[in-house]
Amino acid sequence: MSLVDTENSLGLTESGVETPGEAAAERKGKKKKKTAGLLWWFAITWLSLIVLLVIIADLLPAEYDRPIGDSNLSPFQAWPEFLGTDYLGRSTLSRIAAGARTSLIVSTVPIVSGVVIGGLLGLTAAYFRGIAETVIDIFADALLAFPPLLLLLMLSSVLTPPSVWTITLGLSVLTIPGFYRLTKANAIAQSKREYVVVAKAMGAKPGRIMFKELMPNTVATIMSYAVIVMAIMIVAEGSLSFLGVGVPDPEPSWGGMVYKAKDSLEDYPAQVFVPCGVLFLTVFSLNVIGDRLRAKFDVRDSNL
After folding, report:
1. What is the pTM of this model?
2. Count of CB atoms within 10 A of residue 242's CB?
């Protein structure tokens, strides 16, 4: 083994000593990677628990819409009042589980709607350009012109009585412009690549180019963005429920539970902190996963 190989194996610089800056940078990189891994697995574990709650929501011994004991019980006392009871004596655990089902609906259905409608519009505008792009841009800009919360409040007041599906419809409208712009930008970038030029030269029809060539190369970016938008949808539903125009009682939602218990925060803080904690950890986990997926599919950082 040469002297240079020996120095490299020992982590030495040309002068024979590892500089403090290099050592600190290496330790920082390892620590950052380890922290990111812990956050990733925490997020996966927490979201798996939420999905499990959705699955077993109807199997819990206490029903979410019926009193099971005394009102305002503190958490961690007895089963099935594991997380306490609300002001009517209903099980907080059962309502958290049923609220998870509500959050799953209002976060996935708008995402699917945004991906399908916004994606189709984005592919159409990116391929045909010209008048088609101008018309679709005007439609997307018109939707973006409304403040999101104001638009949701308007839809909630018009689509009466409010329910999970009316809220979901309003959130679906909000997701279309974002997915349209993202799909369009990625499709335009891909349309200049060689494989698209060759497909056009070979006489491929527009449908084949859009769905066989452009769409597969935009899916990764769209999916990483969709996870982050799911978190935004959950927060939006929680905001509407907290304002009293969301999912009506007795159908539970995490924001609605906070809204109903906000006046008793000083006397029974657990009724507010438990649903707030679940909401926070869910949104946090979705953001962590979305960020890691974005980093994975980013050509500048391919390490998950």
Report:
1. 0.77
2. 18
